[in-house]
Amino acid sequence: MAKIIRPTYPVEFSVGLIILIFILSFFLSSQIFYVTWPELKEGTNMYFGMFLVSSAVIIMVLILWEEFLFPIRIKPGADGVNFHNHRNKLKVQLLIYFIIPAIFTFVYIYFEPKINVVRFSIWAAICTLMPVGVKLISGIKNYNDFLKLDNDKIEYKNNHETGLFLVKDIQRITPIRDARTVLHKLEISTAQGQVMIDLDEMELEAYLDAIDDFIVAHYPTLVREKKS
Prior knowledge:
By secondary structure, the protein is an alpha+beta fold. The chain has helices at residues 11-28, 37-42, 46-64, 87-97, 99-111, 117-141, 208-218, and strands at residues 3-4, 73-74, 80-84, 146-150, 153-157, 162-166, 170-177, 183-190, 193-197.
């Protein structure tokens, strides 16, 4: 059974935060249109345009805040665990992402006479480019990457290479940590030499603590912390 390894905020808090973001973006999105508050009070179809823009903002937030829709889970096997980029998650993210440019295209075509082009362009650029730069490109680039740890072997694949080490052949495992003491690389030493596994380049950030705990628990005689 899959286990959630990064608990999210309580559902009530998460939903409340999403609603708050929607309300704020709804009112702020009025800046996109040439419309005054008295006109809005009288009732115009600009409310529909503001609703659409706010919906695009929420879709962007859901892609960036992926734990809301896709809690980070690991599924232990018979004797180990496989850490990898969730492909179904990425497919869903890509699918809902394309709603964002569709929304802005519709808003521009339908409300073109009333649109402030500069402000519209800023909103559209943020909502369409931020998910791509922060999540989607990295997810696609590391689509096939994985790290498999079990009692007999360590196997991995990244953009550059694939490797498999039998535990009996490993002389030393050195966790490489960043300034926050968070694991981000593994140095595997064997009789043939040393190999660096760049976990921080494999879309495995969500699993770093779980990987750290696993290697300490399962390979206690092999783990050697790097001296500062």
